[in-house]
Amino acid sequence: MQTNDLTIELRGDQQQIALITLNRPSKRNALNDGLVLAIRDVFQGMPHSVRAAVIHGHGEHFCAGLDLSELSERDAAAGLHHSRMWHHALDQVERGPVPVVAALHGAVVGGGLELASACHLRVADTSSFFALPEGSRGIFVGGGGSVRIPRLIGTARMADMMFTGRVLNAEEGERAGLAQYLVPQGTALDKALELATRIASNAPLTNYALMQALPRIADQTADHGFFTEALISAIVQDAPEAKARVREFLEGRGPKVKKQ
Ligand code: 1HE
């Protein structure tokens, strides 16, 4: 990695959790090119011990989106390549080596929301707010937001956020589907680490199927989706770990599903 604006720390007895921190608080963790490339590099070079990751922002905000100071001199061709660079980097998050939980607080805006939407789960604390100020800045999303955000909240809600500059508070964001968990202020990171630890204890092939097969099945026709589901479920259940976990339950040793 070429920047100190992104850090990675390994947690857990077997270093199975990667804690990735956007560390540019003086600029509200705005994503300049160096930081976007560092995100790409950290996911491409994820240590083999890691089974799940958490990403969060240092300071008062998760992320203020694209670093607007780098935008001014770009022509159309440069803009195209820049957007494709973001796509490549965030694809390493979404289709990368491990499930990623985003711990959100403060501003989750523009490219920051695009980054959060590339993660597999989002935990928001009550200080979080969500916006797509691209609409009012005369630009458009370029980090995959027009593909990923409608899948979370629908096209109409995303269009509203961009047409009108609507800012969703934490409760509204959770209700709309931008976050799967809403927690008290200051506790998003702890909750995200707890979830990542739980996710890391799953059979690796189950997590692989959730990351790689589930979103692709959602993009397929029902007929193709049923067939892909049959293939992936056959592969996952064939793993020795799956057989051992089912046997444990049948012998009364495996965990039961408990009402929360
Ligand atoms: C920035 C950026 C940035 C802050 N690029 N420098 N994103 C936006 O349009 C959001 C712009 N930012 C804001 O609305 C606010 O900064 C926040 C609500 C996020 C935070 O407010 P606050 O009062 O805590 O901080 P601040 O005083 O506004 O900003 C502190 C510093 O960070 C200040 O720099 P300074 O040198 O004057 O101290 C700001 O200029 C700087 N800063 N946000 C550059 N975004 C792949 S396409 C994606 C397209 C987009 O993401 S567009 C949306 C961009």
Describe this structure in words.
With 260 residues, the protein is an alpha/beta fold. The chain has helices at 33-44, 76-94, 111-118, 134-137, 145-153, 155-164, 170-176, 188-200, 204-219, 222-238, 240-250, and strands at residues 6-11, 17-22, 52-57, 100-104, 107-109, 121-125, 129-131, 168-169, 181-183. The chain has a six-stranded mixed β-sheet with strand order 1-2-3-4-6-9, sandwiched between helices. It has a three-stranded mixed β-sheet with strand order 5-7-8. Helix 1 (33-44) runs parallel beside helix 2 (76-94). The structure holds 3-methylmercaptopropionate-CoA (MMPA-CoA) (1HE). 3-methylmercaptopropionate-CoA (MMPA-CoA) binds at residues 27-28, 30, 60-61, 64-69, 86, 107, 109-111, 133-134, 137, 139, 141-143. Its EC number is 4.2.1.17. Keywords: Lyase. This is Enoyl-CoA hydratase. Belongs to the enoyl-CoA hydratase/isomerase family.
Summarize the model shown.
With 260 residues, the protein is an alpha/beta fold.
Low-confidence stretches: none
* Percent of sequence in beta strands: 15-25%
How many DSSP H or I helices?
A: 11
Q: How many structural units, i.e. domains?
A: 2
Give the N-to-C terminal Cα separation: 41 Å
- Kindly identify the CATH topology of the largest domain: 2-enoyl-CoA Hydratase, Chain A, domain 1
Q: Which sequence of SSEs, written as H and E, runs from N to C? A: EEHEHEEHEEHHHEHEHHHH
The pLDDT mean sits at: 96
Main sheet properties? 6 strands, mixed
Briefly, what CATH class of the largest domain? Alpha Beta
Overall body shape: globular
Q: Strands of the biggest beta sheet: in what spatial order? A: 1-2-3-4-6-9
The CATH homologous superfamily of the largest domain is named 2-enoyl-CoA Hydratase, Chain A, domain 1
Number of strands: 9
**What is the CATH architecture assignment of the largest domain?**
Alpha-Beta Complex
Question: Helix/strand-derived class?
Answer: alpha/beta
- The radius of gyration computed from the alpha-carbon positions, rounded to a whole number of angstroms, is 19 Å
